[in-house]
């Protein structure tokens, strides 16, 4: 497997992880749609922005 292929696979996994957590968050529907689009259109930048400022999972809130 090429290094680029492995990087793409890792990026896909991170994007899927982010989208699953976005959908499971307590944010409103509009915010979920915008964050999901950001992660899909700009995978690496969107994932980093989601980590920094994205909606948190309802499960993780105490």
Question: Topology of this protein?
Answer:
Blueprint: H1 3-23, H2 29-41, H3 43-53
Helix pairs in contact: 1-2, 1-3, 2-3
Can you describe this structure?
- The protein is mainly α.
- It is 73% helix and 0% strand.
- It has helices at residues 3-23, 29-41, 43-53.
- Helix 1 runs antiparallel to helix 2 and helix 1 crosses helix 3 (43-53).
- It is elongated, with a radius of gyration of 12 Å.
- It starts with a helix and ends in a 9-residue tail after the last helix.
- The model has no long low-confidence stretch (mean pLDDT 86).
Q: Please outline the major beta sheet.
A: none
Structural class: mainly alpha
Share of residues in helices: over 70%
Gyration radius from CA atoms, angstroms: 12 Å
Summarize the structure.
Helix 1 packs antiparallel against helix 2, helix 1 packs across helix 3 and helix 2 runs antiparallel to helix 3.
Name a few traits of the molecule.
elongated; 73% helix; single chain; 62 residues
